[in-house]
Automatic annotation (TrEMBL):
Record keyword Repeat present: no
Lineage of source species: Bacteria, Pseudomonadati, Pseudomonadota, Betaproteobacteria, Neisseriales
SMART domains: AAA
An annotated Gene Ontology molecular function: ATP binding
Domain Sigma-54 factor interaction residue range list: 336-472
Membrane-spanning intervals of the chain: none
Protein name: Putative phytochrome sensor protein
Keywords assigned: ATP-binding, Nucleotide-binding
Species this protein is from: Pseudogulbenkiania ferrooxidans 2002
């Protein structure tokens, strides 16, 4: 029997070899050692102990949650954090298979991609609410990754249930800032993968982005930092992430941060920055906030730091006292218009558009004074005296742009500020909202903003009705 497995180039038919191995397990009640990868063999043994028939089992609806709405509401923070990555993966791999998000119990929360071809295969329960735990479905990437607590690949015949052998799946657990698994991201495709590590690598990068975004959701009032010895790795799957309080205490750290600093999580979380990192918290935070990206010497070497989220409490940054300089008077539209020049005619046309409640698009390179022009247009329009709100979209971390623009209601997610937050769109209600570097905004948010401009309705995050906005 040993010549039939593992799945190697010498195996003429890997699926047939897997079938024969299942037959042996079914008849003899024993699984030969060394014929499967170690983690797959361990999973097969667990599946056998659950009493699953590896050959005759069919994909029936073994377990579906009773209240799907309650399941989705309980995992809203995870769903919001994962949506951008799911949309990206579905765009890249959606024609080949499915992108699936599951919770900590392997209940499916969202499915993107080729859901149409599931019906042709007679599969009904790859759908939100279906449970894909290992105890119910045997060896499968979504359920087994949660048991193993690490990324895993199940390639066709490595599935315990023979009816799943037509699929190849990759899954990566999603962990919260405290290191607890709260979900799993899965990519399922039909057939045997020739280069399976490619999809697993893409999933690991996506999960890193989701986990970084979760830091901001868990600690909305505090500073969230990313760091790495090499600057080009900031924003990658390999950067460390820290949440730091306004007092300079380390609130949470991801596994990469622990690995980079060579400290276990329990020796870092709850400690002062100077104790865990070898640098005062105020020094670290001031440099990052003032310099954007800062190279900081720590106890274990030099690291590049960047703020993923700035604290809402300004006292975290200690700045030297300086004598306030008088602010220059803002330019007026007449001063900018400069007679009958082409630029002047364009400005007067833009003012006419604002006075007729039309949005105005300003095009220009960085540093050419788009905000100066926007403010002058506002002051020269019928909206003068109303709020003028300027937002630099490039300076807001991707995971926070939505809540920054649209706001959120009390209880919208774990860690949400009591009473909620009014978004910039409603702060500018009746006045002018200036969005700088809008091209850096994620495409799905650009589409949502377009709907706001068309319908004049703003829906904050959380269970709340839309509100009318007259900002332009």
């Amino acid at each position: 029997m040993s010549h039939l497995f593992p799945l190697t180039p010498a195996t003429p038919d890997p699926l047939q070899a897997a079938h024969l191995l299942r037959e042996k397990l079914r008849v003899e009640g024993q699984l030969p050692q060394g014929l499967l990868r170690q983690e797959i063999e361990a999973s097969w043994r667990r599946s056998f102990s659950h009493g699953l028939d590896c050959i005759d089992s069919k994909l029936v609806s073994l377990q579906v949650v009773n209240d799907l709405d309650m399941l989705l509401a309980a995992n809203r923070m995870l769903l919001d954090a994962a949506t951008p990555e799911m949309e990206f993966l579905a765009e890249r791999y959606g024609n080949e298979g499915l992108v699936i998000l599951g919770d900590a119990n392997a209940n499916m929360l969202a499915v993107e991609g080729r859901t149409d071809y599931l019906r042709t295969l007679g599969i009904q329960d790859i759908t939100p609410g279906a449970c894909w735990s290992e105890s119910l479905r045997g060896t499968n990437a979504l359920g087994t990754a949660l048991i193993e607590s690490r990324p895993i690949l199940i390639n066709s015949g490595e599935h315990y249930l023979e009816c799943l052998s037509r699929f190849s799946c990759s899954s990566v657990p999603i962990k919260n800032p405290h290191g607890d698994a709260i979900g799993v991201l899965d990519l399922t495709r039909e057939g045997t993968l020739a280069q399976p590590q490619d999809s697993l690598g893409m999933l690991m990068i996506a999960v890193s982005q989701i986990e970084s975004r979760l830091f901001g959701a868990f600690f909305p009032e505090h500073l969230v930092l990313v760091f790495h010895p090499r600057q080009q790795y900031l924003g990658s799957a390999w950067h460390g992430v820290l949440a730091v309080s306004v007092e300079g205490d380390i609130l949470a750290a991801n596994q990469q941060a622990c690995d980079l600093l060579r400290l276990p999580r329990d020796k870092m979380v709850g400690q002062r920055c100077e104790g865990a990192l070898g640098v005062r918290g105020s020094t670290l935070i001031s440099r990052i906030v003032h310099d954007g990206t800062a190279k900081v010497p720590l106890a274990h070497g030099e690291f590049y730091f960047k703020a993923l989220q700035l604290p809402r409490t300004p006292t975290i940054v200690s700045t030297p006292t300086t004598t306030a300089k008088p602010q220059p008077r803002p330019c007026t539209l007449d001063e900018l218009a400069d007679g009958q020049s082409r630029f002047g005619r364009a400005l007067r046309m833009a003012r006419q558009g604002l006075n007729n409640d039309l949005p105005v698009l300003l095009l220009g390179e960085t540093g050419t004074g788009k905000e100066v022009v926007a403010r002058a247009l506002h002051e020269a329009s019928a909206r003068a005296g109303k709020p003028f709100i300027a937002v630099n979209c490039a300076s807001i971390p991707e995971g926070l742009i939505e809540s920054e623009l649209f706001g959120y209601r009390d209880g919208a997610f774990t860690g949400a500020r009591k009473g909620g937050v009014v978004g910039r769109l409603m702060q500018a209600n009746g006045g002018t909202l200036f969005l700088d570097e809008i091209g850096d905004m994620p495409l799905h948010l650009q589409a949502r903003l377009l709907r706001v401009l068309q319908e004049r309705k703003v829906a904050p995050l959380g269970p709340a009705k839309s509100r009318t906005s007259t900002s332009r």
